[in-house]
Each structure stands twice: as C-alpha cells, then as structure tokens.
Design a protein that fits this description.
By secondary structure, this protein is an alpha/beta fold. The protein has one domain: TIM Barrel, CATH 3.20.20. It is 29% helix and 18% strand. The protein has a seven-stranded parallel beta sheet. The chain is globular, with a radius of gyration of 19 Å.
C-alpha cells in the first residue's frame, strides 16, 4: 500500500490482502509474487495463505479521502496491486465486504478494481448498481483473453470500465468492444528479469483503435524490451526480431521509458458525473 504511488496511472495503492493464484499467461512472471517472496512471504497458489492487515492499514484511505475532499481534487486508488479482489476463497468474503464498506466511506476516491476474473464481478456486487466511484477493469494480454473477459466486464455498470493490456504478449483487436462501453485502455510491456517482449506494432494498433473510437489511451511503459532505436545509443546487442520485422532490444526499464512515437500518452477518462460523451472524449491530464 502507498500514498503517491509510482504507478503512472494511479495516485495511491491499497491492498485489502496479499496473495493470489495464477490464472493465465499474463501471470507467468507475476511481479506481485516476486515482491512478496522478497519479503519472505509465500502467498501464491490455491493452498497458500493470504496476508491480512490491521486497523492502521485500513485507516489510510479514510485520510486520503479527507485530503481529497479538502482540496477538491479526486484521487485514484488502485486496489489491489498484490491480489485480485474477485478471487474465490471462502476467507476473503469478510475482507471483501470490509472493502465495500470502505468504498462507501470514501466518496472522494475513485477505486480502480482490476481483475483477471471478471466472470466473478457480478457475484460480489452488493449494491446492484455499482457506485460511481468504482472503476472496474480487466487484464487483456492477448486476443484470447479479450474475447473471454471483456464481455463479462461489459455486463457490469460501474463508473468507468477499463482494460489493462499489460503485459501485452500478443496482438489485440479491441474494435468489437471499444464502442460498447470501454472508457479507458492502459497498455504496456512486461518488466523484470524474465520479461517477454511486446511488439511496438501491437502498442501502436491499440492506440490507433482507441483514437478512432474516442477512448482514453494510456501507455504505461515499454518495460525491459524497447524499440531498437531507443537502445542503439547504449550499444545494447540483445535483440528480438518479430515475424513482421519489428525489432526490440533488451533494455533497462527506466532508460527505455514510456515514449511512444516521440510523446507520452497519459489520457484518463473524465469523472463519470460528466456526460457519457464527455467521458469518452478523454484528454491528457
């Protein structure tokens, strides 16, 4: 958990618990599992324990909400970077209900719930209609997961629906879905010692699809594989050549950065009190 998160598309992060079970190829080199192991915690898998937290931890979002109200500036909270809120385990139900209470108590915070289990979202909606400060998203790493997960996301009506195409490990055509109620697309490459490369063409195609559909697009990072021209200056020689001729080089994540065709793409959806038309005509913020 942290105030002023380093994740480019959120202000704060909050975890109702730590731990999860891998469900798809995007989970293969899970950064959260690696991070947990660095702290000495074995929390991944159906038989592993989950880590829970005390009152001080749960008080922090209340303080963020007070600050947001005082300044008149909404804040985005990514929940749960170290777990999946919609994971099925009997002992998580009480903690999930506590999270729903917290969301009700913090109307000045926008809660970003990102899941790889969108088929379970409706099962845990105690409101019937999701509060407007709940933003629901699902991970889409390739075309297969787009077809499987996005329809489940679209069957729910939160304040904002978003997709996280990170790590992007295959091309994705979002055109069948973007005009059906997707408000925001986040894209990015994979980072870490065993990261897989993303084809720059896949990133550009997602951007162009979003621009055509007037959907906000946010490019988070290249990760540890960047376009070859970004690596030439450092003399990097570890490269990957895609079948279409695109070349990427193994590179330091920080040096590779997040420029796409010479600029950053930091678009966000407008807060849903605005009209739907305004919501989807996103502007860089």
């Amino acid at each position: 958990m942290g105030k002023n998160s380093s994740i480019e598309w959120t202000h704060h992060t909050f975890n109702p618990w730590w731990g999860c079970t891998k469900v798809s190829h995007a989970c293969k080199f899970c950064y959260a599992e690696v991070w947990a192991k660095r702290t000495g915690a074995d929390l991944w898998g159906p038989k592993a324990a989950r880590r829970f937290f005390g009152p001080h931890h749960w008080k922090q979002p209340l303080l963020w909400d007070e600050e947001a109200k005082k300044t008149g500036t909404r804040r985005r909270v990514f929940c749960a970077s170290m777990a999946d809120v919609f994971e099925y385990r009997a002992e998580l139900h009480t903690w999930r209900e506590r999270l729903w209470d917290l969301i009700e108590q913090t109307p000045n915070l926008d809660w970003l719930l990102l899941t790889k289990r969108p088929q379970r979202i409706a099962l845990h909606n105690r409101w019937g209609v999701w509060p407007k400060n709940v933003w629901l998203g699902t991970t889409v790493e390739n075309q297969k997961t787009a077809a499987e997960r996005i329809p489940h996301l679209l069957s729910n009506n939160p304040g904002v629906r978003f997709l996280s195409c990170e790590p992007l490990i295959g091309p994705v055509d979002l055109n069948p879905f973007l005009r059906l109620g997707i408000d925001w697309v986040i894209a990015g490459g994979e980072s870490g010692g065993r990261s897989r490369p993303s084809n720059p063409r896949w990133i550009r195609e997602l951007r162009d699809q979003c621009m055509a559909a007037e959907v906000a697009f946010h490019f988070k990072q290249w990760g540890n594989w960047s376009p070859i021209d970004l690596a030439i200056a450092s003399g990097e020689k570890r490269v990957h050549i895609f079948s279409d001729g695109e070349v990427v080089a193994r590179h330091n994540k920080g040096t590779a950065g997040r420029l796409l065709d010479g600029r950053t793409w930091d678009q966000f959806p407008v807060y849903p009190n605005e009209s739907t038309a305004t919501l989807r005509l996103a502007a860089d913020q």
